[in-house]
Amino acid sequence: MKTIKNNAVLVLYLPDRRHIIVQDRRGHKPPLWGYFGGGLEAGETPLQALLREIREELDVELTASQVEFWGRCEDDLPDLKYTIHVFAHLFAGDPATLTVLEGAGLEVVTPEEMLTRCDPGGPDDAITRLALSKLHP
């Protein structure tokens, strides 16, 4: 049976535009590494879902003016059909001050390093490639 996902995720990037903050999902749910965010609930817009998910996963209250919509990643794979609404936020603080409420923690990596942690052709691969195009135009 094919899984269908309609998610909103946040690319947290650092001021150097060379590093991103990713979620260590080990012990939570697959994949092992990913982006903070999650599924849209009934009646939610992608932005509303994103702000709720960031509050639930990082205990951070972002507003609409603090995030930028970067685009949408979509694909229809043999076992997965997905639409991922990708937002971004420049995080100027110390990543160690973030409180991760879902998953095992976080890690600061380059987008290139994140590509080595993603399933080629999967949703996180598409998100990371979009992030690369925005961070390194």
What does this structure look like?
This protein is α+β, with helices and mostly antiparallel strands. The protein has a single domain (3-135), classed as Alpha-Beta Complex (Nucleoside Triphosphate Pyrophosphohydrolase), CATH 3.90.79. Helices cover 24% and strands 34% of the residues. It is built from three helices and seven strands. It has helices spanning 46-58, 111-117, 123-135, and strands at residues 3-13, 20-24, 33-34, 36-39, 68-76, 80-90, 105-109. Strands 1, 2, 3, 4, 5, 6 and 7 form a seven-stranded mixed beta sheet that branches. A hairpin with a 6-residue loop joins strand 1 and strand 2. Helix 2 (111-117) packs antiparallel against helix 3. The longest helix has 13 residues, at 46-58. It is globular. The termini are far apart.
Question: What percentage of the residues does DSSP assign to strands (E)?
Answer: 25-35%
H/E series = EEEEHEEEHH
> Could you say what the CATH topology is called?
Nucleoside Triphosphate Pyrophosphohydrolase
CATH class: Alpha Beta
InterPro entries: NUDIX_hydrolase-like_dom_sf, NUDIX_hydrolase_CS, NUDIX_hydrolase_dom
Keywords: Hydrolase
Organism: Deinococcus cellulosilyticus (strain DSM 18568 / NBRC 106333 / KACC 11606 / 5516J-15)
Pfam families: NUDIX
Give a topology summary.
Blueprint: E1 3-13, E2 20-24, E3 33-34, E4 36-39, H1 46-58, E5 68-76, E6 80-90, E7 105-109, H2 111-117, H3 123-135
Parallel strand pairs: 1-6
Antiparallel strand pairs: 1-2, 1-4, 2-3, 2-7, 5-6
Helix pairs in contact: 2-3
